[in-house]
């Protein structure tokens, strides 16, 4: 039984997904065997484990993964336009004289990426014992409009670019889920930390109330102080109730993000590791953003599509001159030219004007996007640097708050300060600890957003999507 539990625990969500195992079953088994081995101990859930679970169970990730099947098939359709197209038509006719006529007409068409088209047709007829057949081959080669690889590949190249955008969108949507999981995970941690501080505050307030009662009974303190301390205890209890509600709500939202039953009992680990979150230099951040930022990359790809639209509009305004040749099994041979010249076609002229305008606008927007990218990268780096400094100051604040609290305890022991002062210093000490947690969570969240901005979220968590 112990061996099975260890096997389940060491399997990551990525391995489970790779082997197409049901993660719900595996995870539930781990909880069952954990309970059998460790009694009623609740399994701890680390942040990497939470992200692994979300990669398998989150509905948004599952939906995006399913959509990728459609996206990839759409690209196959574009490639199929340059593959042989097969057709077969068959007919059976019955006449009044009980004659049966059978006819079959298979055909193959192929359009190459240079624009040259081939067609092979066969027609066979069987009627009342007689059989006739004919086959012909037709070749069409554009000499002006529609000629060349660059023109004929426009729809395919657009589809390839769209597939690239779809891949980027898929990665971005998964990165969004990962950041949402991190944000919700840290909300739960913050709730837990506040609950610990509130419990300590309530415990100290109750101890102080007991001290007040003894002093009042001895005549060393006015009874009015009792009501003040009782009010403080009620306030602490109210805050604990509010915290309990926030914890339940945030924990439920976390479980839903992970695609799990909200009633699943797990223990969220309170540790926050920011030591490994290294801030790149501004120049490094700009280079990474230009390579991986989803919005910027999408604009670069759209720029290529707009250029091809202009190329297509210019080609449509050219005269169409096609060389058409054919040969059939009955000895017929043909070779000819077909010329079509657009004359004062305003719609074709408009297409060039519109495409040219779109290209100029896209160029302006791309330059602005690059400028915005640099500014955003600078803001992220500066903000993270400031937050790191805040964390250092928050740690220093904890040090001094702890000293003040210990001094107040010592003074109270010698009767130099009141219990109220001890409670106040204790609350200041607890608040400084909560503030540090908040600063660390804010830094972690900002770093996660920065990573998503750079397009590096999946790399950070070593997640390899099947694109």
Outline type: elongated
Mean pLDDT: 87
Question: Helical proportion?
Answer: 55-70%
Strand content: 5-15%
Features:
467 residues; alpha+beta; Outer membrane efflux proteins (OEP); 2 domains; six-stranded antiparallel β-sheet; two-stranded parallel ribbon; 13 helices; elongated; disordered N terminus
Briefly summarize what is shown.
With 467 residues, the protein is α+β, with helices and mostly antiparallel strands.
Report on this structure:
The protein folds into two domains: 65-79 and 154-310 and 350-460, Outer membrane efflux proteins (OEP) (Up-down Bundle), CATH 1.20.1600; 83-149 and 319-343, no CATH class. It is built from 13 helices and eight strands. It has helices spanning 2-10, 13-18, 23-38, 47-57, 59-80, 149-152, 154-217, 224-257, 282-292, 294-316, 346-413, 419-454, 457-460, and strands at residues 44-45, 85-94, 100-111, 117-127, 130-142, 267-268, 320-328, 333-340. Mean pLDDT is 87; it is low at 1-29 and 31-39.
